[in-house]
Queue: 2 jobs
Job 1
Amino acid sequence: MQGINFDFNNMFSFNVGPRHGVTYLELSRMSAAIDKAHRHLSSIIKNDHNRVSLGLEWVNLSFQDRKTVNKIQLLGREISRKFKNIIFLGIGGSFLGLKAAQDALLAPYYNEFSAQREGHPKIYFEGNNLDPDTLAALMRNLDPAKTFVVVISKSGETTETKAAFKIVEEWLKKGAGKNYGRQIIAITDPQSGSLRRYAQEKQKKDVLSFRSLPLLKGVGGRFSELNIGLLHLAIVGVNIREVLDGAKAMYKRCSRPGIFKNPAYMYAALQNILYRKKGKTIAIIMPFSETLKSTADWYVQLLAESLGKKYGRRIRVSSDGRETWEQDPGRIVNTGRTPVSARGTNDLHSIQQNNIEGRNDKTVTFIKVQNFQADIKIPGDDDVLGGRKLSELMHLAQEATAWALVISSRPNCTVIMPQVTPFCWGQLLFFFEMATAFEGELLNVNAFDQPGVESYKNYMYYKLGKPGLNAGIAHSIKSHPLRKKKKLII
Amino acid sequence: MQGINFDFNNMFSFNVGPRHGVTYLELSRMSAAIDKAHRHLSSIIKNDHNRVSLGLEWVNLSFQDRKTVNKIQLLGREISRKFKNIIFLGIGGSFLGLKAAQDALLAPYYNEFSAQREGHPKIYFEGNNLDPDTLAALMRNLDPAKTFVVVISKSGETTETKAAFKIVEEWLKKGAGKNYGRQIIAITDPQSGSLRRYAQEKQKKDVLSFRSLPLLKGVGGRFSELNIGLLHLAIVGVNIREVLDGAKAMYKRCSRPGIFKNPAYMYAALQNILYRKKGKTIAIIMPFSETLKSTADWYVQLLAESLGKKYGRRIRVSSDGRETWEQDPGRIVNTGRTPVSARGTNDLHSIQQNNIEGRNDKTVTFIKVQNFQADIKIPGDDDVLGGRKLSELMHLAQEATAWALVISSRPNCTVIMPQVTPFCWGQLLFFFEMATAFEGELLNVNAFDQPGVESYKNYMYYKLGKPGLNAGIAHSIKSHPLRKKKKLII
C-alpha cells in the first residue's frame, strides 16, 4: 500500500536563508513544546471521556466497525440503483468534505457524461448558500420522483441547510407522491436537535420514511468527512474501507512522538515557527492537480476555523481526570494563519506573481500527485513540447515553482501523493486533521470550537425575531448599530 | 439604467475605531497623492502612444466600434447555431474573465440542463492546467465533429494552452475530417507570435480555416476580458453591447478627479491607507452570490499580478512626451495585498471564524446583489424561517456579517449591484480594473507587468532544453540547485 510523504527541505534556512527559513536551532528549541503537545494530545485521545467531550473523537473514525461500514455501503448501493439524482444538503463541514471527495475520487466531468459516472447517479450539492438562483434552477430541471435527498446538519438549525431542506421537501412532496419521505435520509445528531425530532416523528408514521444516520458525538463539522461523508462515498461507488484504511495508516504514523517520524507534527512545528518567528501569516495550499482543488478548499475551513481564535485556552483537569477547556479572558491572542486555496498549474497565472515578488509573509504547501489517472502525449516534434507527456510537464512545473520560490527566499513544502486513490486521499485528510490539531496545541488555543461565527448568526436571529434569544445579545445588537454617514455611498 | 454603488462607511474609524479604520485626517492627508495619481493616470490615458505602450489600452475597450462588435456577435451566433460544444483553451487572463462571465451572466447549471442553455452550446474550459485527467475525460466524451475550439493566447507560447491546443487539434483532425480547421478560431496577437504565424499558414490553404480575432495591443491578459471575452459572450447569447455600455458608464464615473465622486479612486485610496498604516495586508473579496464567485477569482488575478511587486517604478519621459517605466533597482518594496476569494453565505461556514477572531490584518469587500434572477419562499410557518424569501435571508446574512466584522473592529466595504445583468457586470469589471490601476499609482509600482512569473517558466524551459535560452538564466539555474537533505522527507 502506497503512502503519502512530506518533503520539507524548502522550509529550512539552508534553502531559503535564515531570515525566512527555519534553522535547526529554532527547531531543537521547540522540542520541549513539541513533547508537551504530544503528551497532551495523546492523553486526550486515550481517555474516552475527554476525547469525546473535547471534540477529538474524529481520530477514531477509521476504526468504525465493519458492520456499520457495510450497512452504509449497502444503503448507498440501494440508493444509487434506484435514483437518477442525489441532492446533498449541507454547508461548511457538511459540504466541503463531500465536495472534496467528489472531485478527487470520481472521474472528471462526472455529472456531465454518463460514461464518466459508470451507472451512478448525478450528484448535486445545495443548501450551502442562501442564494436562491441555483436551487431554483435545480428544482426546475430535476424530476422529483427520480431524486433522492440527503440532508446533513448536526442540530438541524443551520439556516442555509434548514431553509433549503424545507423547500426541497415541499418540492418532493408535490412531485414524488405520498411516500416522498422514503426519498430522504437525514444525517444528524443521534439524540437531540430539531432535525432528529422531525425524522423521528415522520418515522412513526412510516418506518421507511426519513431514515437517518448518526453524526457522532465529539466529531465537529470540519473533522467529520469520514463520518458524514460515508453515505456519499457509498452512493458514488467508492470503497469506504479503502478511505478509512488510508486514514488509519496515517493515524499510526501521526501518533509517533518524534517529529522526524511524524509528518503531521513536523508540518505543524515548521509552520508554527515560520508563523511566530518569520511573519508567515498566510498559508497557500496549492495542489498540482485540478481534482484536488476542492480538497484544498476543505483544508481552508479546517485551518481557518481551528486556529483563527481571539482567546488563548485555559485547561482545567478535575480530580477524576476529566478535562475541560475554556477561553482565557486574560490572553487575547487574535491568532491563526490565513489559508488560501489555489491549484497548479492554473493559478501560476494568477497568484504566483504575488507569491514570488509580493510580501514575504506566506508559506506555500504543494500537493504533488505522482501518477495521474490518465495521461496524454503532446503530438508533433517541432518544439520542446512535442512528444512530452502532460504529467511530465505537470511535475516539472511543480518543481519549477518550488525552485522559483526558493531563489526568492520563500519557504515551501510538498505533500507527495503517489496517486489520488481512496486510500491516499484518506491519508491526506487525516494528515491535515492531525497537523491542525497539533498546531492548535502549539498555539494553545481550542482548535475544536468556532465561537466567532455566533455573532452574525445572533444578529440574523435577532432581526428575524427568533423567540428565546439571550437578552444580552439583543442588548449588544441594539447598542451597536451600524453607523452610516450620508455621503459615504457613491 | 441601474448603476452599481460603493458603500464605504465601515472602512472608517467612526465605525471600526481609529486603530483599524481610516480617519478623515488620514484621508485628507492623501489628497495631494490622490491628485498626482489622477493627473498621471489621465495623462497616460489621453496620450495614444503611452496608453498603448504602458498597457492601459483596456480603458478604451468599451469604445470598440459598432462594426467590430456586430461582427463578433454574428460570428458567435453562427458558431452557436452550428455546434453542440465549444472548448475554450486559455489560462490566466484568457480563462478567468470568460469563466467569470459564464457563471455570472448565464443560468445556473448551464451545461447540466438543456433548458438552462436555451439552445446554446455547452461550454468547456480547458488548457488552463497541465493536469491530464480533465482534458482526457473531455476528449473521450465529446464528438469532435460537433465541437468548436477557441484558442486564446497572445504569444501562442503559453505552455498550458499550447500543449492543450496541440492535443485538441490532433483530436479534431482525426475526428472531424479534413476541414477540421474550420472548427478553430484563434484569438491572438494581430501581428506576431507563433499562434498568429500558424493560423496564417493554415489560412493560406483554406481561408475558412483558423480564423482569428485580435488580442489588442496594450491590453494585458488580466485586463482583457472585454477584448478576448467577446466571442464567448456572443456564442452564449449575451448582448456584448450591454456589457460594454456598463464598462463605459463606469469609465465615466471613474475618470472624475474627486475621490468622493469616483468609486474606484475611493476604493483604492481607502485600501491603500489600510494597507500602509493599519497592516491590512489581506484582501478578502466576498460576493454574496453563488454566481459571482468566479468574478471574485478573476479579481484575485487582477490584484495579485498588478500589485504584488518586488521593485518600485521609475518613470522616464522623453522630450516628445513618450513615457517609459522601469523597475527601480534602488527601491525593493516587496509590496501588494494578498487577495482571497470567497462567497457568501457559503464561506461564512469556513473562513468567517478567522475573519472575525484571527489576526486583524484583512479588509473584506462584499459584493451585494439587490435582486436575484429567481427567488424562493420557504414553506411552513412553524419558525422564524417559514414564509421568508431566500433573497431576504441572503441580504440579512450580508448585513449581519458586516455588523459582526464592525463590532470586532474589522474594516469592510460593500459594492452594491442592483442585479447581475450584463450592464452591471461590465460596470463591476471596470470598477475593479480602474481601482487596481489607481492602487498601482498610489504604490508607485508598474501595475501592468508580471516579471515574477518568468522565473518558473525559465526553469521549465531550461529543463526542457529549449534552444536560444538566455545564458544568464541557465547560469542562474545551474548555480542555484534545490538542496535536499536526506532525512527531510518523511
Job 2
Amino acid sequence: MSIDILIEKIKEKKNPTVAGLDPRWEYVPGYIQEAAIAKYGKTNKAVGAALLEFNKGLIDGLCDVVPAVKPQSAYYEMYGLSGLNALAETISYAREKGMYVILDGKRNDIGKTAEAYAGAYLAKVNAGEIEVANELESEGLTVNGYLGTDGIKPFVEACRDFGKIIFVLVKTSNPSSGELQDLLVDGEMICQKMASMVNRWGEGLEGKYGYTPVGAVVGATYPKQLSELRSLMPKSYILVPGYGAQGGGAKDVAGAFDKNGLGAIVNSSRGIMCAYQKGDYKPEDFAKAAYDEAIRMRDDIMQYI
Amino acid sequence: MSIDILIEKIKEKKNPTVAGLDPRWEYVPGYIQEAAIAKYGKTNKAVGAALLEFNKGLIDGLCDVVPAVKPQSAYYEMYGLSGLNALAETISYAREKGMYVILDGKRNDIGKTAEAYAGAYLAKVNAGEIEVANELESEGLTVNGYLGTDGIKPFVEACRDFGKIIFVLVKTSNPSSGELQDLLVDGEMICQKMASMVNRWGEGLEGKYGYTPVGAVVGATYPKQLSELRSLMPKSYILVPGYGAQGGGAKDVAGAFDKNGLGAIVNSSRGIMCAYQKGDYKPEDFAKAAYDEAIRMRDDIMQYI
C-alpha cells in the first residue's frame, strides 16, 4: 500500500511534514517574474512559466529533507490552462525528485463521476484503445465526503488497485468549519460521524504499519478536536493543515500523532514558500530559505512527538 | 444579476433544462473517434479533439432550444491536459452560441483558496500587471458547502461582483446521499441546515425575479425532499440532476418549480448525449438525436409545470 511508502519516506527523512505548493504570483520572487515576462510577455504563459520555475527551485531545495509536497489545485486552476500545465510539470518534477505528491483538490461527486476524478488523479484511464497519459497523476488526493459512501468508493478502489491514498475532509482548519462540522447528531459531531465513515471506508486495507490508505484532513487550528479525532480514527493518517500562517503551533499538532510518532503529516505552505521574504535572504536564495524553514519546522514539531 | 440572465434564457426558450456535457470517450460516435485517431494517433490529443468535436456538434444541435449547458469537469480532467483544453474550448464555443455555461466542479476549500477557485471560474484574476485570460470562466459553478461560510463567501462575492451564479450541494442525487445529508440535528436534516445556509449566503442579492445568485443542487431522485427544499429556499434556483438515466421522472422534478414555473433547471447528460444510440439514428445524426431528446425532455417536464 502506498501509505506505507509515505510512512517510509517520513521515517527516512525523520520529518512528518509536507510542503504545500500554492504558488500565487505574488509569492514568486521578482527576478523570476521578470524573466518570464521578458520571455513570454504579459501572458498566461509567463505566469505558468514563473510558477513552475519557482516550484522547481523549491522542490530542489526541499527534496532532501521533506518527504512530500502538496500542490493546491486552486492556485493552478486560477491561472488557466498555463497554470494547469505548470501543475502537471510540478507534479512530474516532484515525483522525479523522489517526493511523494498529494494533490489538494478536495474532489467530490456521485459514483460515476467520482470514478472519473479517481481516474484523473489516482488510477489508469483508457479511452478505447488509447492509454491516456494522465499528467496530473499523483500519489494522493484530498476528497470531500459530503456525498457519502458511493461518492468515495471509487477513490478507495483506486487506492486499493493502484497503491494510492486519499485524505477525506473531516474537520477543516478554517474559522467557519464548525457551522456544519460541529453540529451534534445524537451527541456526536458531524466531523465525528465523518470520522466513523473514514474508518469504514478504510476497513481491510491496513498496510504494514497498521494504517489504511484512507486518511483524514483535520486542521491544526482545533487542537482539542485533533486529539479526539486521532483516537477516533486509529488507522487513518491525518493530514494537518493550519500550522504556521493559519495560526497553529507545534504543540497544537502534537495530538495528531500516535505513540510511535506516526499517524500524521503536517502541512506548511506560505511559511515555506515565502520564507525568503523574512530574515536576511536575497530573493535568489528562496530555495535556501525554504530549506531553512523546513528544517526549523521539522525540529519545532519533532520536539513534541 | 446573472441569475436574471439565466431566467430570461429559460423563459425565452420556454425550457427549464440544461444539457450536461459529460463526454466520456465511449459516448463519442465511432466516426469522430476514428477521425481524431487518424489525425493525432492514439494519444491524449486525439481524445481531446474527439471530445471537442462531439461537444461542438451537440452545442450546435441544442443551442436553439436549450438555454444552458453543464460540463462536468471530472470528465475532462480524467483525460489530462488535452481534456482540460477541450473543456476550455467547449466553454468558449457554448458561450459564443449564446448558451449559459454552468461548470459542474463542486469546488470547495478554505477562504483564501476558495477565492482562488472563484478566480478560476467566476472572477477576474490578475498576476501583478498581467490580466490572466481565464479559459475556464463560466457563468455558474457548483460548489460544496461542507466547510461553512468562509469557504463559500469568496464565491458569493464573485457572484455579486461579476454577475455569476453558484449552486451549493444541498441534497445530492446519489444513493448514499442520506448518510450525511439526512442526519438529524435538533429535528432538522443536515440538508435542511445547508438550505438555511444557502438562504443566508444569498441574502440581499435578489434579482428582478426574486431569485439570488446562490442556488442549490437537489437531486430528482428524492422528489419529496425536493419539494420540501423548494419551499425552504424560496429565493434559490435549484439545479436538479438525476432526471433520466439516474431514474428521476418529470413528475419527480415538478416539485422543484415555483408557482410561476420558475425556480429550477433540470439536467440531463447521458440521455441527451447518447440519444443517438437509441432509436433509428445513424451515428452521424447524434446532434439531431440530442435535439429530439431535448425537445422530448422539455415537453415531458413542461406538462407538469
